[in-house]
Design goal:
By secondary structure, this protein is of the alpha/beta class. The protein has helices at 3-9, 35-42, 57-70, 81-90, 107-119, 133-138, 162-171, 184-187, 233-236, 247-269, 275-286, 288-307, 326-332, 348-358, 388-393, 410-422, and strands at residues 74-78, 98-102, 123-127, 144-150, 176-179, 197-201, 215-219, 312-316, 340-345, 363-364, 374-376, 401-404. The longest helix is centred in the middle third of the chain and has 23 residues, at 247-269. The protein binds pyridoxal-5'-phosphate (PLP).
Length: 424
């Protein structure tokens, strides 16, 4: 199946007389005839449902669709993109370990890594996505367990050279984890470029209607943990907290990582997606391929209009020929990048604030990748925890406006932007 067909049909094949739309299994628990039956589920000897903190059929159906879209072998939904980012790393790293991450990542992820996970004893080295191979290789340590980056960084919008990062990760015996939120599998499938694990904030384009916060983790099943079993004892040696199961032995390379994340992390931290919200994510997924096309068309049209306007000091959009990352975008995102455009208006911070207030269609929101256009000033909102140096490393200037083009008509978005510039 092609990507659009997977968006519509993936994950769920109803049998004779079954509901056509995926059922919302709004149940915390599941009934069994004997304790023995249930015991087998607890021991991971049989597969089935027993408690929705561990697994729920609706969530599994939607995870299966995202898994198909990314071309992975196993996937799980989480309550948020933040939970997905946290689990993706904590599943293979713990106190005393080290992670290499691109410096241009979502502000919430940066805070999770640089502050909260640091307090858990996991150290992060942030590298510029533009670094040379030598600089990238120099960031690794004996205790490095993974490399992390975003396909299209939020909000810096640089396109990651996924192959460069995958090669460096693999030459050091660790997986590459890619947050593919902005590109979505419609525009880029990082596994095809060597990434091993993909994370999503489904809150963004996948949901697409601003209706539910959610996340997802997908495993490619390609990383051979057993080749580096001393680095990944959690996957390659018996788990005492789960009746001595060794995940790689019992579930193979295709299932070990997600089964461990479900059995240990979801069991203990409980960041579950609700069945209701999983249903909403699926409604969004059914039109993802159509919406992404429109988001990208609007993004390019708005970026071109901004570029041609003398009141705008700079524009950054990976699809613009003038973009620093145009070549990378052509390689990794040939069908379009995303609907998010960043730019600065002449007059700096004060003019930016005035401009945003003047907009009539584009609303000021801490949100992005929605059917409705919205905009944000990251330096005073999502990235306000960062000092000036950290902002520069994250690719954010004080005047940066992040404009997320929705799926309205481009003419209307451009007219709205023009009148907002006129009235600064
Ligand atoms: C929004 C976002 C996140 C965090 O996701 P939530 O669903 O808000 O927790 C992570 N990564 C990227 C790229 C994002 O845009």
């Amino acid at each position: 199946m092609k990507i659009g067909t997977k968006c519509v049909q993936g994950g769920y094949t109803p049998g004779n007389g079954d509901p056509r739309q995926i059922p919302i299994i709004q149940s915390t628990t599941f009934k069994y005839a004997t304790s023995e039956d249930m015991g087998k589920l607890f021991d991971l000897e049989a597969s089935g449902y027993f408690y929705s903190r561990l697994q729920n059929p609706t969530c599994d159906t939607v995870a299966a669709k995202i898994c198909e879209l990314e071309g992975g072998t196993a996937a799980m939904l989480t309550s948020s993109g933040q939970a997905a980012s946290f689990y993706s790393i904590f599943n293979i790293a713990s106190c005393g370990d080290h992670i290499v991450s691109s410096s241009t990542i979502y502000g919430g992820t940066y805070n999770l890594f640089a502050v909260t996970m640091k307090r858990m004893g996991i150290e992060f080295t942030f590298v510029s996505p533009d670094c040379t191979e030598e600089e990238l290789n120099a960031a690794f340590k004996e205790n490095t367990k993974a490399v992390f980056g975003e396909t299209i960084a939020n909000p810096a919008l640089n396109v990651l050279d996924i192959e460069k990062f995958a090669n460096a990760a693999h030459s050091h015996g660790v997986p590459l984890i890619i947050d593919n939120t902005f590109a979505t599998p419609v525009n880029c499938r990082p596994f095809e470029w060597g990434a091993d694990i993909v994370t999503h904030s489904t809150t963004k384009y996948m949901d697409g209607h601003g209706s539910g916060v959610g996340g997802c983790i997908v495993d490619s099943g390609k990383f051979d943990w057993t080749k580096y079993s001393d680095k990944f004892p959690g996957l390659c040696t018996p788990d005492d907290s789960y009746h001595g199961v060794t995940y790689t032995e019992r579930f193979g390379l295709e299932g070990a990582y997600i089964t461990k994340a479900t059995a240990q992390l979801m069991r203990d931290f409980g960041s579950i997606q609700s069945p209701q919200n999983a249903f909403l994510i699926n409604l969004g997924l059914e039109s993802l391929h159509l919406r992404m096309k429109r988001h990208c068309e609007n993004g390019l049209a708005v970026a071109k209009a901004l570029e041609a306007d003398s009141r705008v000091s700079w524009v950054n959009y990976p699809g613009l020929e003038s973009s620093r990352d145009y070549a990378l975008a052509q390689k990794y995102l040939p069908n379009g990048s995303c609907g998010v455009v960043s730019f600065g208006v002449k007059g700096g911070r004060a003019a930016a604030e005035k401009f945003m207030k003047n907009l009539k269609i584009g609303a000021i929101e801490t949100h992005v990748a929605d059917a409705r256009s919205c905009c944000l000033h990251p330096a005073s909102a999502t990235h306000r925890q960062m000092n000036e140096d950290e902002l520069i490393a994250a690719g954010i200037s004080g005047d940066l406006i992040r404009f997320s083009c929705g799926i309205e008509d481009a003419e209307d978005l451009i007219a709205d932007i023009k009148q907002a510039l006129d009235n600064i």
